[in-house]
Amino acid sequence: MRSYESFGGQHIPDAYNIDFSGNFPTFAGWIIPPDKEILLVSASSVRAEDAILWLRRVGLDNTVGFLNGGMHAWANEGLLTNHVGQLSAEELHTKIVKGESMTLVDVRARSEFETKHIEGAINIPAPELRTPHKELDKNRQLILICRSGNRSSLAASILLQQGFRDIYSVAGGMQGYSAAGYVQECPMCSIPHGPRFLGQSE
Questions:
Q1: Could you give the 3-state DSSP secondary structure of residue 170?
Q2: Are 14 and 160 in contact (CB under 8 A)?
Q3: Residue 18 belongs to what domain range?
Q4: How do residues 106-115 score in pLDDT, each as one tens digit?
């Protein structure tokens, strides 16, 4: 449930990353198998309790616990962690200009992609990555981008479960890439979303 930068730094292998400060219940309803038990990794027990409420509202009733002490406690036990590299807008632009070998995957909704996207990117919305796609090669570097970094981190967590390893997420997403002056602002990307529209504070 932590932010994309926290998840990128270290996370439990095979965990999904669904940032609670984003559209948590919708993304959870998209991704989490309803027949599986759910264990939460959150910044606090209070945040975990809030998440349980939202999960129930989208029909996910199998939350059985949360990680006491969070990732700090996990790391202190010497347990295995995984990572997702975070690229800045500048780093992504440099890779594009140099023509580096990579696949840029825009994981936003098709309407967002059609409104504005980076030339050469392919569009696979994050929930659709649960099934294999012939465009994606495990031997080729994958760079994932969304509006802000939340969905691309979710997409990265899904692909890691499928055995992809050379994966990067663009921190700040299309908003950051636009702010850096590399592409015009996407009108749909400026539409706010998140817990403040769900009765939660930021």
A1: strand
A2: yes
A3: 4-76
A4: 999 999 999 9
**Tokens matching residue 133:** 């796609």
Amino acid at 47: R
146 is catalytic: yes
Determine the Cα–Cα distance for residues 67 and 143; give it in Å rounded to an integer: 29
Side chain identity at 14, as an amino acid letter? Answer: D
Count CB atoms within 10 A of the CB of residue 130: 14
Q: What are the b/e assignments for 47-71, b being 16+ CB within 10 Å? A: bbebbeebbeebebeebeebbeebb
The catalytic position among 60, 146, 154, 160 is 146
Judged against a pLDDT cut of 90, whether residue 200 lies above it is answered with no
- The number of domains in the chain is 2
The reported pTM is 0.90
